[in-house]
Amino acid sequence: MQKELHQLVNNFQEVFKAIHQKSYHKLEDKCLYPGQPKLLVLIKSHEGIPQKDLSEKTFVKPASITGMLNKLEANHYVYRVPDQEDKRIMRVYLTPEGRIFADQAEKFLKKMTMLMFDGFTAEEIQTMLAYTERMKKNLQTYEK
């Protein structure tokens, strides 16, 4: 059983590495790195989202989100504006260029998802979803 668990973890790592590599090669000419397109898509669907909420929704540390946003801002994909009522809160918006790229990134992410699950039945996807939810729950319980 231990050997199978080890192989399963290795398979997960290889799947995520393949996603990372395909994303990187697709995006390197746009000065973006894996994780940033997903962030742009999230900002697109929550225009004006507070920076803190981005951290919570992506499960990425606030300092890492700040670094990602700094790079996206330097490439003119996003801009930040202090909240009108609470100047400590920074709201994040897409630039016109960022919106175009967010649309492209969303299409790319959907294409990758379809490619990854090609040939799976609806029942297999539901089973996998249940398994990964249990794994997530196990890991969240361990953190506490």
Task: Please characterize this protein's 3D structure.
The chain is mainly alpha-helical. It has a domain at 30-118: Arc Repressor Mutant, subunit A (Orthogonal Bundle), CATH 1.10.10. It is built from 6 helices and 3 strands. Strands 1-3-2 form a 3-stranded antiparallel sheet. Helix 2 (36-45) crosses helix 5 (96-116) and helix 3 crosses helix 4.
Set down the secondary structure blueprint.
Blueprint: H1 2-27, H2 36-45, E1 49-50, H3 51-58, H4 62-74, E2 78-82, E3 90-94, H5 96-116, H6 122-143
Antiparallel strand pairs: 1-3, 2-3
Helix pairs in contact: 2-5, 3-4
Strand order of the largest sheet: 1-3-2
Which CATH class of the domain at 30-118 is shown? Mainly Alpha
CATH H-level superfamily title of the domain at 30-118: Winged helix-like DNA-binding domain superfamily/Winged helix DNA-binding domain
Query: How would the global form be characterised?
Result: globular
**Treating each run of at least 4 consecutive H or I residues as one helix, how many helices?**
6
CATH architecture classification name of the domain at 30-118: Orthogonal Bundle
Could you say which structural class the secondary elements and strand pairing correspond to?
mainly alpha
Q: What would the average pLDDT be, to the nearest integer?
A: 88
Can you summarize the main beta sheet? 3 strands, antiparallel
Strand content: 5-15%
Helix content: 55-70%
Count of DSSP strands: 3
Nearest-angstrom radius of gyration? 18 Å
Q: Output the helix-strand order.
A: HHEHHEEHH
Which fold name fills CATH's third level, the topology of the domain at 30-118?
Arc Repressor Mutant, subunit A
Stretches where pLDDT is under 50 for at least 5 consecutive residues are: none
